[in-house]
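Appendix B. Chain record.
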Amino acid sequence: MVEKELRRLLPETKGLEESVCEAMRYSVFAGGKRIRPVLLLATNELCGGNTTEALPAACALEMVHTYSLIHDDLPAMDDGQLRRGIPTTHKKFGEAIALLAGDALLTLAFEALSNCHESVVPKLVYEMAHAAGTMGMIGGQVADIEWAGKEVEFPTLEYIHSHKTGALITASVRMGAIIAGTDTETLKSLTGYGHCLGLAFQIADDILDVESDSSITGKDSRSDVALNKATYPRLFGVAESRRRCLSLIEQSKKHLADFGPRAGMLEAIADIVGNRKA
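Structure tokens predicted for this chain:
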């Protein structure tokens, strides 16, 4: 469903803007787990929502995520060479087109949100902008860059991970619930789930950077080590990092206790994150 809607929403590769449209499609359809849109749709379903109404928001989140990957890979950031097993966008299209493709995806994401029911659009715009901006993903990325090569303490490391990755994952859960019109207490429980899951996701990513090969992860292996990034394995070692990751997965599922069997999909997603291989 998400793939089909993304293909409908993304601009066709024609006209004078053909190169940037091609770069957008190249980046979005290079693969990926679609964890953010799936989380939004699963949460929406849990809360009794309508999947069709939630689909544009799910796609908007994937656009924002993909834009962030394009920009992360730029030479001025992490200078990535591989993403999802193929050359990064700037290696394929050049830095200027890659930069514009990221900008275009971020802009299109908010256009996609306008397709949701008018009663929830303002709330969705706030959630996504807040999670992606300086109080969320970008704030985490800034700290990630500025603390590279420095001795980092746990509160700073947790800030980096919970913002640069966790914020958008938490927003995915919250937005699914908001579209369904859920109550405040339910939203609070789901927010707790999303926060723990988002942090666990990035810790798992840190571990994969150390342990897995590019042929498995689809991106440059040991890039965090090469850039001397602040990571959980660097601070705690791999074994303790894995323990903390799995502990967060269990905490995330505890936030779902009141939902009973209805939360099966969200629990399964948590288990997948805890056992990531790529």
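Further analysis of this model is presented in Appendix C.
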